[in-house]
Amino acid sequence: MRVLLLMLLSFSVTAGSPEKSAIASAHYMATEAGHQILAQGGNAFDAAIAVSSTLAVVEQQSSGIGGGAFWLLHRAKDGKNVMIDGREEAPNAAFADMYLDENGEVNRDLALNGPLAAAIPGEIAGFEHLAKHYGKLPLSVSLQPAIKAAEEGFPAYPRIIKTIERKAKVLKRYPASAAVYFPNGQIPKEGQLIIQKDLAKTLKAVAKHGKAGFYEGKVARKMVKSVQKHGGIWTLDDLKNYTIKERNPITTNYRGHQLVTAAPPSSGGIAIATILNILSAWDLTAMNDDEDRAKRIHLVVEAMRRAYRDRSIYLGDTDFVDVPIQLLTHPYYAAGLRAGISPHKAMPSALLPGINDNPKGEDTTHFSIIDTEGNMVSATLTVNTGLASGFIAEGTGVLLNNEMDDFSAKPGEPNAFGLIGDDANKIEPGKRPLSSMSPTFVFSEDKVAVLGTPGGSRIITMVLLGLLDYFDGNEVHSWVQKPRYHHQYLPDKLFIEKDALDLKTIEALKAKGHEVVEHKGRWGNMHAVSWNKKTGEVDAASDPRTTTGSAMVK
Ligand code: DON
Q1: Is the overall model pTM greater than 0.85, yes or no?
Q2: Which of 364, 400, 405 to mutate to test the pocket of ligand 1 (most atoms within 8 A of CB)?
Q3: Is 364 a catalytic residue?
Q4: Does 13 reside within a domain?
Q5: What would the pLDDT profile of 510-520 be if each residue is shown by its tens digit?
Q6: What is the pLDDT of residues 40-69, one digit of tens each?
Q7: Domain of 539?
Q8: Which of the residues 163, 252, 364, 453 is marked catalytic?
């Protein structure tokens, strides 16, 4: 009897498992690192450490150990879904008006560049938490590929070279940054190795001592000394007191699909839930032909507008402010918002009760993993804008984030992504700045989807458009390449990617009252994996908008 039961149990486990593992990330060295760790006996969570840490070395314009992350996890053995919140935290000496000048205006340079822009990083604490509570391997193993990449170097590629060019002035202010990004005093050429010996040493300290190798001891002392020397306010206690928080993800249903997505301090999950609740009344899939396309986009945009309005008013770190999550994600609340949408006319944002142009979305990074046990990771990691504060703390190789700009430095004043905020997201010591990062899982009857993307304020709408494409019945390769459009309440504009919409649709949207702004470039860097539970097949896809992305099934 017991044997039979065991057989039945193991049958149900293997029958429900993916045939292979899949990883999609923004850099081939990171995807390879993840597969290497799986081959060494690690699970998806160990692979997530390997991918994150390798990205921290080879794609540090986007994320890094001086930054933070949300890792959304699904553990197969008990079905647990949890968000590991490794978001940066304001140092203890931070205060609401810290970026205002004598005229009460926001000093954008201080908010974005140099160590005063940096919040206390969370990524390394996340690694230790992942390894201890979810992984199978020690950090000394899962950090190996990153250490190697830092020590031996990685070839420079156009995206990082462009970011170095853009950030050159700031990087040159700080000797430790200049030494890494201007080897021989020059911007690196394509293919030239970028070597980071100090970063390798710091990663080795973490491999040996875990979190303490970064937040205490030599590395911590060097970081604090360097930060303070250059005008920052970090203390050793700020570092020592940083802790990981486990958050219950936001969950919602959309026409038979179950969504598991980011919780505060991200705004993404709540906004996506609100938007999907509003849209659930319509059969959007039936509006995909030429005739109805403008109608579909109009409805989606009106839902976006309302969710971003709520973001600006209500959302912030739930450890500091009461966020009415139940209300904002409730179908009745969405029904109220839906009632105000005219199918014919755009509602000007100024008419919505409540309280301005965006950079592109390729800083920050996202990866998706599924292993053969059915464990999954959807992780978005960031240092905020490209190459972040531009400040490497001397002797550590750690490029510090500029995540303080994700707070609202002044009510109603747009941040780097044109996002506005109010008291809920004002600066307070120990508080985590409101994020848009939206790592997401969808569980459907026969399928599972894992997706996310960088892109600042547009992350939420990009994930939403990926989801709508999935709900339309399309495959993972389609979600990542789908043309994108975006509305964020203020500025009251409908942004579209270059060539995203045909002229007829644009004219129809204009006729409804939308101010359509076509961008010169394309946005985002989505990396997604999927699993067909019926056939066991897994699939992976990387956004075609960038060249280093890598999706691999093994
Ligand atoms: O957490 C956030 O929402 C931002 N710090 C993300 C920044 C980002 O995606 C930059 N990429 N364009």
Answers
A1: yes
A2: 364
A3: yes
A4: no
A5: 999 999 999 98
A6: 999 999 999 999 999 999 999 999 999 999
A7: 247-355+438-553
A8: 364
